[in-house]
Specification:
This protein is α+β, with helices and mostly antiparallel strands. Helices cover 48% and strands 19% of the residues. A hairpin with a 7-residue loop joins strand 5 and strand 6. The longest helix is centred in the C-terminal third of the chain and has 24 residues. 33% of the residues are buried. The chain binds (R)-mevalonate. The site of (R)-mevalonate has 10 residues, from helix 9 and helix 12.
Length: 437
């Protein structure tokens, strides 16, 4: 097959036609398959087409909701966009469990964001440092037009620092800037400021008396925002931890705390443990039109901040009280980006009462904590597969193209049986009276 030139210039139909010829042997039914996911309203579809480049169709994910979240005394129904069965159920179950035990207490610890101009300087550090101290204000003044809207919203540049990184690499320096970005995630704002800083740095050093060569390597925000931090916590008397008839509240509390300790000291477990937390967090991040890759990258760097990858949640038992909490950096926005454009994202913000960025951080942290509580609760009691496979049963039946009646019959039959792929296929074949392939 030949590579294609000018693909991006083709119309949407032209792109699909090329794909069909290049990868589907000219099978024209493919266009119908793709078109069946186009939105019926052409205007809405155009909006989706224009979110990215080379759009050919939409990629559906289910949007579920987890009701009954009591967060600081207010009830929320949290929207979650995710493909994995049992995540929404686990989150909702935890929300209801904690609803009756005081709910989630959340707070913002800090909201700082950072970015860097990474550059090389061949001259003397002390001289550069004094020059920078003298000219710091010119960086603030030179970006005042860019920052005026943000300043009006209570944000802006809060600190500028020259950082000597020459111990890591010869001649390597950073101009590190700290920002407050109000309700915006702030990526465009930060990157625009950084690019302006680099111009000011270049032109300032050019006319200075300093001896040395400057080369700006790059200007970019950091997705590592350890000081854009939120905390969510649940706690109750141990006696109220009656989660399962097979385990006493004391035994549950101790096993739970031990499970969190294992995730804190053992990276193999920590990775899966934090993956479970991110099941909850990413689902809300996605539903609210935020950048889940940025949040993921940041969460995992934060989880390794002391040099070892560890659990993002903590738990303790003290004076007959069980406390379970998360502290996690979440750089999210409630204005800008997709938030005002994507119709379903807009709906999700409305469902949450149009929170500001700080409120959304707290809602997301609560969802992550709830998700982790649900997973660890299952792990230390019944095991994860019981609940997971019950939810997965429907996926297996859909794969087998079971009818609605067949689904009802088989789901009923598995109410008291262990679900496994083989057991479901066997039951399905028996019901249809066909041989098991
Ligand atoms: C599955 O998506 C997530 C879990 O593995 C998380 C965990 O083990 O804590 C259930």
């Amino acid at each position: 097959m030949e590579p294609i030139k000018g693909f991006s210039k083709l119309s949407k139909e032209g792109k699909i036609e090329w794909l069909i010829n290049a990868y589907f042997n000219g099978d024209s039914t493919v266009i119908e398959r793709l078109k069946s996911y186009w939105h019926a309203d052409g205007k809405v579809q155009k909006l989706h087409d224009e979110f990215i480049e080379n759009t050919i169709t939409n990629f559906y994910l289910p949007l579920g909701v987890a009701p009954n979240f009591n967060i600081n005394g207010k009830l929320f129904c949290i929207p979650m966009a995710i493909e994995e069965s049992s995540v929404v159920a686990a989150c909702a179950k935890s929300a209801t469990f904690w609803l009756e035990r005081g709910g989630f207490k959340t707070s913002i610890i800090s909201t700082k964001k950072v970015g860097h101009v990474h550059f090389s300087w061949s001259g003397d550090y002390e001289e550069l440092n004094s020059w920078f101290d003298e000219h710091k204000q010119s960086f603030v003044d030179g970006t005042s037009e860019l920052t005026s809207n943000m300043r009006a919203r209570g944000g802006g540049i809060t600190n500028l620092q020259l950082i000597n990184k020459t111990e890591l690499d010869e001649g390597y320096y950073q101009l590190m800037a700290e920002f407050q970005t109000a309700d915006a995630m702030g990526a465009n704002f930060i990157n625009s400021c950084l690019e302006e800083f680099s111009k000011i740095l270049e032109s300032g050093l050019d006319v200075s008396e300093l001896e040395g060569e400057l080369e700006v390597i790059m200007c970019i925000l950091s997705n590592y925002t350890p000081e854009c931090l939120v905390r969510a916590e649940v706690s109750c008397p141990i006696s109220e931890l009656n989660v399962d008839p097979g385990i006493s509240p004391e035994e549950f509390a101790n096993k739970f705390v031990r499970a969190i300790k294992i995730a804190t000291i053992e990276p193999y477990r920590a990775t899966t443990h934090n993956k479970g937390i991110m099941n909850g967090i990413d689902a809300v991040i996605l539903a609210t039109g935020n950048d889940f890759r940025a949040v993921e990258a940041c969460a995992h760097t934060y989880a390794s901040r002391d040099g070892q990858y560890r659990s993002l949640t903590s738990a303790r038992v003290e004076d007959d009280t069980f406390t379970f909490w998360i502290e996690i950096p979440l750089a999210v926005g409630t204005v800008g980006g997709l938030t005002g454009l994507h119709p379903t994202v807009k709906f999700c913000h409305e469902l949450l009462g149009n929170p500001n960025a700080e409120q959304l951080m707290q809602i997301i942290a609560a969802a992550g904590l709830a998700q982790n509580f649900g997973a660890v609760r299952s792990l230390v009691t019944t095991g994860i597969q019981k609940g997971h496979m019950k939810m997965h049963l429907l996926n297996i039946l859909n794969q087998l193209e079971a009818t609605e009646q067949e689904k009802i019959t088989i789901q009923k039959a598995f109410e008291t049986k262990v679900v496994s792929h083989k057991a479901v296929v066997d039951a399905f074949c028996k019901l249809r009276g066909v041989n098991n392939p």
